[in-house]
Amino acid sequence: ITTHLHMPKDQRFGQAAILTPEQLQDLCNSFPVGQHKYISLVLAFSGARVSEVLALQWRDIKDDYILFKSINTKTKKSREVVLHPKLKQHLKDWKEKYWYQFPLLNKTKNNLERRAPTPDCFLFKGRNRNTHLTRQAFDKQLRAQLDYLLIEGATTHSYRRSNLTAAKDAGMALSDIMQISGHTSLDALNKYLAPNQKEMKKVVGAFGF
């Protein structure tokens, strides 16, 4: 049996599908409480790459911004991203209520030591204190949630493309978006953005006689 997958309308040249704000919300809400849910929330409110998010330590979460250190960015340049108020509350909940519980490994919630993270602790821990969760682990869980929600063509890149495109469609200056996204040129940024379908209709509407 051959299954033919239909590519989403907003997918260009095999790029990850762009999700609506409603789809992003449904996606984040679909994860059970745990590391994957909060990774999804950071991605949904920061415009960052998944590799940058997984490498975050608690020292990188400031009162009003997130520091993505040069050692972890694709461009090898540090950047500061304003901390969204909703994300600030989510991270507070993660730090105070849930962080110590994950990953459970061979423990149970009843015998876990409730401890606060130190500044050098990763937000999203791997199998030991000195590692963070792998991209493969998050990707596996993300695919399961996307399948559950019947969302096609989306990947970890969809969070970033969706955020940056939404900012562009809202009229934000591309130069300002670049400061948040970390792209080094407008050409590089434009490859991430999808055209605004409403504006495209206006353009075509101006054609003819």
Layout of secondary structure:
Elements lengths: L20 H10 L4 H12 L3 H5 L10 E4 L10 E4 L2 H14 L36 H14 L8 H13 L4 H8 L4 H5 L6 H9 L4
Antiparallel strand pairs: 1-2
Helix pairs in contact: 1-2, 2-4
Biggest β-sheet: strands ordered side by side in the sheet: 1-2
How many H/I helices? 9
Q: What average pLDDT do the residues reach?
A: 86
| Helix content range | 40-55%
**What can be said about the biggest beta sheet?**
2 strands, antiparallel
Please tell me about this protein's structure.
The model is unreliable at 1-12 (pLDDT under 50). The protein is built from 9 helices and 2 strands, in the order H-H-H-E-E-H-H-H-H-H-H. It has a two-stranded antiparallel ribbon. It is mainly α and 209 residues long. Helix 1 packs antiparallel against helix 2 (35-46) and helix 2 runs antiparallel to helix 4. It is globular. It has helices at residues 21-30, 35-46, 50-54, 85-98, 135-148, 157-169, 174-181, 186-190, 197-205; strands at 65-68, 79-82.
